[in-house]
Amino acid sequence: MTTLEIMRRAREASRAVAAASGDVKNCALLAMADSLEVSTPAILRANENDVKKAKGTVSDVMLDRLTLTAARITAMANGIRDVVMLPDPVGRVLDEHVREDGLSIRKISVPLGVVAIIYESRPNVTSDAAALAIKSGNAAILRSGKEAHESAAAITKALQTGLRAAGLPEDAVLLVEDTSRESANELMRGVGYIDLLIPRGGRGLIRACVENATVPCIETGTGICHIYVDGAADFDKALSIVENAKTSRPSVCNAAEVCLIDEKIVDTFLPLLEERLTAHEPPVELRMDERCLALSKRGVPASETDFDTEFLDYKMAVAAVSGVRAATEHIARHSTGHSEAIVTEDGEAAAYFTAAVDSAAVYVNASTRFTDGGEFGLGCEMGISTQKLHARGPMGLRELTTYKYVVVGNGHIR
Predict the structure, then answer these.
(1) How far apart are the first and last CA of the chain?
(2) What pTM was estimated for this model as a whole?
């Protein structure tokens, strides 16, 4: 199918999904989850081909994002089942009032229609996006990167089997067959077919969509996430938080890329942090400003761009700052508005930080790795929005709805 045909078929299917009851949508989701697990051998074969072709062309951490296992497929299926347990976001009465003349005005949540998502080498996004779209009454158009295309095709086929079993059109979840740049451009220009476009990937993809799309587009952010270790920090907490935020999964957007340290404690805290992170396997390369480098045994000088880089790897930029205000000023200059954290036992410092930092998620004494739809109780996510209109932070079911006014009268005229 051409991309235009896919958009047309998705638009047609979206009407059936929008009209489906909550029970029908949940039955479809359960059938999709079951079909995923039944299709595990076929999905793993397709993924093996993708991984084989990608080896040597992407980093090891990106290869890990691409690789599926039986356990990861089971986790994908369970993620869909988690969505089933969430309240239906469609049909909620957001506001209502009755005028003095008896005219009733209600504001009601409704599906967006057709949601398109362009993503790169993460096959699990295929099932997450499809599940959220169906639960929220939308059709989904999925456009995977070429590195994950065979995996995404096998996953989509399994999901469509589940849709058919539940009586919903399989065109409610469609995968773009063309992996060239032109198919992405067609989605960006799909006025009349696409109600929302969500790019989920690197800075280049996101920027291309935001700058070139003529359909509504959500800016999902690259994650230059900061952790500020305040002068009143508990060192054990700080070491644990920074290590988790950097090393638990460095290839994801909520991994920390920058550590800022209050200059009042840098002499004592930095050696402990350096020992902790360089002892990790693999070790973290610490790129330091002059103050930190003078105290370091293993750090390397930070370049001009290191504090503006999403490494997505075992690398971290480190700098000393003169207190919480200087930390928030540094973050304002370099952050992408994703997630930032402060580690402190000082309530005033924490309050200042949370008020002054303008990011989608701001943490006190916790790792930035929690910025995730599942961790926030949303089931899974379509992406993490770093813009402020319509959606901000992890995008779950409610962020895939809009609203309309339903006005009921009794022969009223104006």
Answers:
(1) 50
(2) 0.87
